[in-house]
Write a structure and sequence with these properties.
- The chain is of the alpha/beta class.
- It folds into two domains: about 30 residues, no CATH class; about 220 residues, Alpha-Beta Complex (2-enoyl-CoA Hydratase, Chain A, domain 1).
- The strands form two sheets. The chain has a seven-stranded mixed β-sheet with strand order 3-4-5-6-7-8-9, with helices on both faces. Strands 1-2 form a two-stranded antiparallel ribbon.
- Strand 5, helix 4 and strand 6 form a beta-alpha-beta unit.
- Helix 4 runs parallel beside helix 5.
- The N terminus is likely disordered.
Length: about 280
């Protein structure tokens, strides 16, 4: 014979429908403060929390909508796609991983590049998409950035790159690491031509992106509380053997120690870029 430890004196209040959370897709929960935000309010607040200001991770389409004048974006090099030089397989073949990412994101790789206008100012712009294999930098990302730099040199228009990356794409091995040198040397040519380059760092910007083009801007701008680092905190601690200060890889710490120039919220980003472009472009 079994005995229940507790006995209810009354039945629970019952409902005819099962409990659901965000069932209609109209509510977004902030991962920082737990605030529930209606999707319309979330979008009108530029994908930021109305309570704590947390900046949600977004993609190139959203950034272009925030920064560029409506209808001004013209994509270039859209059809470039990664190949599988190493025939790499981890939990699944790299070729299949690329195909799945193309299908789920409707992008051909982890960056979109093109031309556009910011309050009437012509720019060449690129924006990474973290949703495509963690925004990793492979041969196509490096090539598209290089071509965007060539476009900026040809048109004499400022270059803007928005980074959101987990680092170099390990599935392409040394080919992905070569993109660090490739993009850095191209940016050196841009500097020789005295064409402005503004780098915008979002959450996260790590690994090979941080070690190359992301931190080489004439002006480096970060979003609030963005993770910006080369290696993770655990790896850094193992390498240095020291306890590290809280938030040492966040935007605010990097600004305090001179690694970035500004922290700018999305709602102010277009106006700030306009001011900077007018200033540095004369």
């Amino acid at each position: 014979m079994t005995m229940a430890w507790f006995k209810r004196s009354k039945e629970n209040i019952s409902t005819t429908a099962p409990k659901k959370e965000n069932s209609d897709g109209n509510w977004i929960k902030c991962s920082e403060c737990g605030e529930m935000i209606h999707k319309v309010q979330w979008e009108s607040n530029l994908y930021s929390c109305i309570n704590c200001g947390h900046h949600f991770r977004i993609g190139s389409q959203e950034y272009f909508g925030i920064i560029l004048d409506e209808g001004s974006f013209k994509e270039i090099d859209k059809k470039l796609r990664s190949v599988d030089p190493l025939e790499f397989t981890d939990t699944k073949p790299y070729k299949k991983r690329v195909e799945e990412s193309i299908k789920s994101t409707e992008l051909n790789d982890a960056i979109r590049t093109g031309t556009g206008k910011i309050n009437g100012i012509d720019v060449v712009i690129g924006c990474m998409d973290f949703g495509f294999i963690g925004g990793s930098m492979g041969s196509v990302v490096g090539e598209k950035i290089s071509r965007a730099i060539d476009k900026a040199i040809k048109t004499k228009n400022p270059l803007i790159i928005i980074s959101s990356s987990g680092g170099a794409r390990m599935m392409e091995g040394a080919v992905s690491l070569m993109q660090l040198a490739k993009t850095s040397s191209k940016l050196a040519k841009l500097d020789e031509e005295k064409i402005p380059y503004i780098s915008i760092l979002t959450n996260p910007t790590t690994g090979g992106a941080t070690a190359s083009f992301s931190m080489l801007g004439d002006i480096n701008i970060a979003e609030p509380k963005a993770l910006i680092a080369f290696a993770g905190p655990r790896v850094v601690k193992q390498a240095t053997g020291k306890d590290l200060p809280d938030g040492f890889q966040k935007s605010e710490f990097l600004l305090e120690h001179g690694f970035i120039d500004f922290i700018v919220s999305r709602k102010d980003l277009k106006e700030k870029l306009t001011q900077l472009l007018k200033l540095i472009s004369g």
